[in-house]
Amino acid sequence: MALNRAEVHNMAAGPSPLPTSVLQQAAKGLLNYNGTGMGVCELSHRGKEFKGIVEKAEADLRELLQIPDSHAVLFTQGGGTTQFSSVFLNMLAYHRLKSKDVPAEQYSPPTVDYIVTGAWSSKASAEAKRLAVPPTPNAQALANVHIAATTKPTKFNRVPRKEEYNFTNDAAYVYYCENETINGVQFAGDVDSPAAVPFDLIPNDVPIVADYSSSFISRPIPHIERHALIYAGAQKNLGPAGVVVVIVRKDLLVDTNEAALLGGVPVCPIELEYKILADNGSLYNTPPVFSIYVSQLVLRYLIEEKGGMAGVKETNEKKAKLLYAALEEAERKGLVRLTVSDREARSWMNVTWVIDEADGDEESSREKRFLKGAEAQGFRQIKGHRSVGGIRASIYNAVSLESVQELVNYIKNWAAAEKWM
Amino acid sequence: MALNRAEVHNMAAGPSPLPTSVLQQAAKGLLNYNGTGMGVCELSHRGKEFKGIVEKAEADLRELLQIPDSHAVLFTQGGGTTQFSSVFLNMLAYHRLKSKDVPAEQYSPPTVDYIVTGAWSSKASAEAKRLAVPPTPNAQALANVHIAATTKPTKFNRVPRKEEYNFTNDAAYVYYCENETINGVQFAGDVDSPAAVPFDLIPNDVPIVADYSSSFISRPIPHIERHALIYAGAQKNLGPAGVVVVIVRKDLLVDTNEAALLGGVPVCPIELEYKILADNGSLYNTPPVFSIYVSQLVLRYLIEEKGGMAGVKETNEKKAKLLYAALEEAERKGLVRLTVSDREARSWMNVTWVIDEADGDEESSREKRFLKGAEAQGFRQIKGHRSVGGIRASIYNAVSLESVQELVNYIKNWAAAEKWM
């Protein structure tokens, strides 16, 4: 049975829904961009049309997130996973160049601090360890990868408490993932919350790196100016998979080959070096034109039709409150368990809960009934990530308040029915 | 003035035109894929719909190019430029693992052989040199980058002659670029041509790596089975920019971290490691879904509507012959100069010539008149690359024989008019 867009509530964790009006515009641009007789994917990336798209995307992003002039905005490829490597290699080069006068044999590899709050920050720290292999078996590792705090022992059910952080004074950088898509745990947007990123505990001159992939442009970024680097894969709130935005302090744009020639740090593959991208206005080689184009349309749409970052934040907060309230009610009845125990660290984007655990009956489990019923009501892609199970409703920017209200109604009806089973 | 697609002849060098019927289908899929009520960019890459797209794309590509079972087909990101680095890092790891028992202090870095025939192979060899920086200033470079032949002294106006090649017996690999997009020079498709890739001169056990970005699926790949690795960026003949196809011999899929632990070679960033991609069916992280989707539609279209590889080759050969014949005629009249002097090495995809050189008058130059007239007739994006100047007509798969015929007519009329000026 063929369905139309209005009949489904797509709550996928990523790739995720995009606004219908944006997709309609993109479909036109695909065949004919601005009356050029050529589609947007058929234009030279060096021509004035495409350069205009990149410039507009950057300007709108700067406006939405209040990005300071001290930072460059780059569009690149390879997904967030490639950034795990880029961050490590570029930050190591930056650190090496700060001590240019130290000869190779006297240079001691730095420590890099990771805050681990879920699957993605775990992967990021694992990649740092993987890349830190010493050049010869008896030499020192290229960096000491230090876990500054982790909530793994409690299955990532919260962010660390202030007293659990253990930062290194002269770390090459501190890394965190603002929103953990799989685990549904997010640092609080309010900087005064105990679940906020612990900016006050991080030594002043240590660069801060953040993965914002799954919460990008869903609300303002607290202390954006304090970050050395923020990156985000597009495929949650911004546009089609294939483009990554990097916001990076300009003094961090370094020649990794120059650093490697000093000894003690590896060269970064050219396409992964931020300086190369910045020097070429994100057009060092052919960029992912369609993903950038749709992202630009989404940014414009947020400014023109959604009230900018303030409007988007307000709607997202309402959506999250509504859904968590319904789930908390079901939790009190013993029907579900919210996997993030600390309310202030519950994600506004990925709402995760389990059902079976409260039931125990595998065959005719509540979870199966829940999912089957949800499917029939048009909810899509709400099964939890294969690594953690359960249910996950991802309520990114393009998921409307009405869709969330429908889910809340569904949960309430389901809970009422379950009580009598 | 708004133009429609039928009014322009888009001869861009890349991103390049795509078949209109494919774009129409893609525009529908963008809003609603197969009646799911969700667009193709909004589907989970781990769901059955998207996995189906990847599987179909691979199957069609295997059929079109007769890819042997010994080789894996991967879809990745980062453009051809990222492959410059990936090739070097993965091939070095492969070479290191072949001599697992050699301790780090006895391991000597290998030579890598590059055939340089234009801008892209120059860049590829430069990246190998850039990455080969020794781990400490007094150590050996990670590899000796050797130019096995180059036509740079004659401004890349041909491919090397047989006697000009100087291959290394135990090279870690030999690298070539089959078609140089900027310079309009291509190895001959006929293996018996003196302008063919010199397979007979390359030692049997030396792996061969080829960049096929701008001639991919334009005709069969000679000796495909002899290649260790072939890669191609999509944005010429295959689909929208953002995806790269890698065809790689399965025994070359190695763990670069394992190799680095032996000492003497660096670790490859995880997303650039072929083994990781292969182990995860190209879905290690979120792939560029839209680019893969459109590529799959293009492959189907070539099989169903263009007579497969044989049909495509026949049309491309006709197009090239027609255009070169017209240009040769103008050359005999002293109006143009074809930049590739060796007929057998003239690209079927990127046809390059200069006009001003034959004229000399900068202000009212023939080249300007040519370009202005061409623009008025609907020809688009035919200015030569900024690094070489002149004219470049890129006549990829999606440029019809009729469009090429129109260009030929235009050239003839222009040449007739120029004679009287």
CATH fold field value of the largest domain in chain A = Aspartate Aminotransferase, domain 2
In the CATH classification, which architecture of the largest domain in chain A applies?
3-Layer(aba) Sandwich
Q: What's the total number of strands of chain A?
A: 14
Please, what is the average pLDDT of chain A?
Answer: 95
What percentage of the residues of chain A does DSSP assign to strands (E)? 5-15%
Low-confidence stretches of chain A: none
The largest inter-chain interface, given as chain pair and residues per side, is: A-B, 89 and 91 residues
Alpha carbon gyration radius of chain A: 23 Å
Name of the CATH homologous superfamily of the largest domain in chain A: Type I PLP-dependent aspartate aminotransferase-like (Major domain)
- The number of helical elements of chain A comes to 11
N-to-C terminal Cα separation of chain A, in Å? 31 Å
**Structural class category of chain A:** alpha/beta
Catalytic activity (chains A, B): 4-(phosphooxy)-L-threonine + 2-oxoglutarate = (R)-3-hydroxy-2-oxo-4-phosphooxybutanoate + L-glutamate; O-phospho-L-serine + 2-oxoglutarate = 3-phosphooxypyruvate + L-glutamate
Keywords (chains A, B): Amino-acid biosynthesis, Aminotransferase, Pyridoxal phosphate, Serine biosynthesis, Transferase
GO molecular function (chains A, B): O-phospho-L-serine:2-oxoglutarate aminotransferase activity; pyridoxal phosphate binding
Cofactor (chains A, B): pyridoxal 5'-phosphate
